[in-house]
Amino acid sequence: MMSAGVGITDRAQLTASVPFYQTSSQGTSTRGLDDVYISAKYNLLDPTLTISEVGLAVSPVVEVLSGVPDDRLHFAIPVTLEIRRRPFRTYGSVGYFTRGALFSGGALEWTSAHGVTLTGSMTHSYSAKNDVMLDQLAVSRQRADVSFGVGYPLTRTAATSVSIGRSLTSVDQGGTSLALSGGVSFTFAAAASRP
Known about the structure:
By secondary structure, this protein is an all-beta fold.
């Protein structure tokens, strides 16, 4: 998966995630482009600029599904609230997905004096849409997931992170038994102009 983000202003940013896949099963290989997500974020309240250190942001998301001939384009509209009390940061998000789902999530983050960040989170989603096929397969309309992550700064402009999680919903009902992710992020700053 390739992800990239760019700051448009000090309050707005754009992000895109483009995953590629390759699978092999019983001598047959397939590969291609998976579901693409493009999102924006706008800070209505910047926690670094308020005395109470409270932040509020909207982050609309566009989803473009692959391998689906019809109804490929969907939208999500989350609203996020953040409260900072050093060395902790708490944030939560609620929203609606046009595929017919309501979702919410919350996280608690702690950052050490050396820059190591520990994050615990929980998310929950609920399908507000009837799906006869999923009902016949006994797939739950609700899903809850928990995760724990560690982030570590490598340099002033690079950091690495790893995360592990699982669903509280059973695998038979559409949950995940184990999810692992990790990566390296880089921060780029525009060169200062010289008169």
